[in-house]
Amino acid sequence: xxDKQIRPIRPGSEGVAPDGYDVVVVGAGxxxxxxxxxxxxxxxxxxxxxxGRPRNAPAAQxxxxxxxxxxxxAALLAVGREEVAGYGGDLIDxxxxxxxxxxxxxxxxxxPDAGAPGSDxxxxxxxxxxxxxxxxPVLRARRVVVATGLSDGLPELPGLAERWGRDVLHCPYCxxxxxxDRPLGVxxxxxxxxxxALLVRQWSADVVFLPHTVEPSEADLARLAARGVRVVEGPxxxxxxxxxxxxxxxLADGRVVPRxxxxxxxxxxxxxxxxxxxxxxxxxxxxxxxDGTGRTSVPGVxxxxxxxxxxxxxxxxxxAGAAAAFAINHDLVDEEVERALAAATAPAPVxxxxxxxxxxx
Length: 361
Hints:
Elements: E1 8-9, E2 21-26, H1 30-41, E3 46-50, H2 73-86, E4 90-93, E5 96-101, E6 129-133, E7 138-146, E8 150-153, E9 168-169, H3 172-175, E10 184-187, H4 193-200, E11 207-210, H5 218-226, E12 230-231, E13 236-242, E14 245-251, E15 256-258, E16 261-264, E17 267-270, E18 301-303, H6 314-345, H7 352-358
Parallel strand pairs: 1-4, 2-3, 2-7, 3-4, 7-18, 9-16, 10-11, 10-16, 11-12
Antiparallel strand pairs: 5-6, 6-7, 8-17, 13-14, 14-15
């Protein structure tokens, strides 16, 4: 690794590369940082722009990440930022307002010369992007990776948001082991809540399904009963907390169901504002569609991690970032080869003296 120290850059700083970047990565979560790590190791000029609002900030630990199981999410990101900076990447603390495609006549970052990777020779005629930062400079990039994650919308029940990531949970694979064999509840606020209750049953024999706003079918009730999941009807009024621990759920009629943790299926929405205006294709649910590498329908734009895949865990998002980086570097190499070939086969310029000598007298 190089000897560059981590140096966060803020809008207006002189540290922003004036001649642009090969790649600007928007979002410094696992997907964005892993993409930046692979690209900086490929000797690409990379900037990572992040607003500092990771999705998993409420969680004390991340799980299911080989060799990092139990690590604090913030610690993982801190290590990732140090690694990216160590290979020469710029880390910019800012919000991206929008990304704009440049016309084909724009001037982008320089192409590396043979034997001089990363040189900053002018590269006229290249398309790319402007990445506009809130209150700061405009970055130029040949390629863009959007890895801004998603937001979790929670039901508006008193006490629920305050316990989010602690004992109000969503992913059994992320948190189920830590609450194993305890009295658990599953709140019905989403069509997938019944399936979630059946899944949570894997970690505890004492699971209560609280339909709340969901009306389970007869088939659903039969499946829940077959798995030993109790159903307690009635709208939920709030979750209860004692000594900074969730103690139960109170229904609108005053009944209390003692529980030590509650699973809820949040409404997940992509944080994809940077993609607005780029006309990326989306699926029926409104999520940006990508190929297996994260490439969107807009040439030069990739999306990686939860912004494109709501089911991705931290380790999955990191892998998606790496896949995007591989594809982007190959894409840049192909572009550079084409330009090198065009330069090699272009006719030599004719000097004024040669042209005069060639004119018949």
